[in-house]
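Working notes for the structural subgroup meeting. M.R. asked for a predicted model of this chain before we commit to crystallization trials. I am recording the input and output together here so anyone reviewing the notebook later can reproduce the run.

Input as submitted:
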Amino acid sequence: MSLSKEEKAMWIEDWRRSEKKAWTYAKENGLIPQTFCSWVKRADEKKASGFIEVPKQFIQPITESRQLIIEIGDIKIHIPLTVCAAELQTIFTAIGRFK
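Returned structure, recorded in token form:
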């Protein structure tokens, strides 16, 4: 089974929310534990390098008029006020890495 980067990111995000051990989560979801653990390791290495990959399914055109706009230098980040707390925490964690 060959998965895209986006699919792997979705599995990893779901695992992080589950609060289970990676090995257990992989077995329960029909994934090969060694392979899943290598995905997690690579994802953690990318985070440690300062690079944050945003999966395509999270990139959506802004259509709402009510939004939070954060400016950091020349960068403007538009956040719809409908984001959940977990998404907002992820955004602020990413922003903290720019400082």
